[in-house]
Amino acid sequence: MPNYRYCDISLGSNIALPELPLSVDNRPEVSFRCLHASSLIPDSPAWIDRHSLSDIDSFLVIEKQESAYLLRHFDLADFIINGQGTEIECRMQKALPEETIRHLLLDQVLPRLLSHQGRLMVHASAVLTSKGIIAFLGDTGWGKSTLAASLVQPGVSLMTDDCLSITEIEGTLFGIPAYTGLRLLPDSLGRLYPDSPEVMDFAHYSEEEASICCECEIRSRR
Predict the structure, then answer these.
(1) CA separation (Å) from 19 to 75, 102, 105, 164, 202?
(2) What pTM was computed for the model?
(3) What is the pLDDT of residues 156-214, one digit of tens each?
(4) Which stretches within 72-165 are classed as H helix?
(5) CA-CA distance, 208 to 201, in Å (whole number)?
(6) Which of 31, 70, 184, 208 could tie 63 with a disulfide, CB 3.0–4.6 Å?
(7) Cα-atom radius of gyration of the chain, to the nearest Å?
């Protein structure tokens, strides 16, 4: 099982996570398993948190169980996190494209796990300049990714598309990207990258149709 780097932790996974760089750590701090054929956790009324999308009343609900947390993405998958926050198990509600599972893990589950551990996780895109980090916070669809991508040039590099961990060390704030990549709608992709860079599929239920590995596409603009 390969190990990857997410923020500043090592993550082991039984599915490939091409969005993440490989980690040299032999022992992952967090392990992820995706079960392709499994039974779901029974429904429970004891949800402690609820999140919605613009067109879905209950997209994600969270339940505290005796020794674990259940994160249910309705009509998609259950994610079970053990009490120590070191193991994540995915149980699909139906057959799903692997890119959808990766999106739910990287952009929904892991930020909440690290936040629960006491880290400040910000829903933001960010670029790195010679004078520091510029981060753009806002709701989904406000154009955070497009704005960050439009600023990339020699001396300004993309840090993250969706999630930034912020920590303070000796009075100085530092930003740690969850991972480096871009998710753009087709019209933004065409305007910013007219040379048609290589893209990866994104979550099947999202309108965003392109996910770009940063190491490839940023060089194409310079």
Answers:
(1) 24, 9, 11, 15, 11
(2) 0.81
(3) 999 998 899 999 999 999 999 999 888 887 778 778 877 766 676 665 455 444 455 44
(4) 98-104, 110-116, 144-151
(5) 9
(6) 70
(7) 18
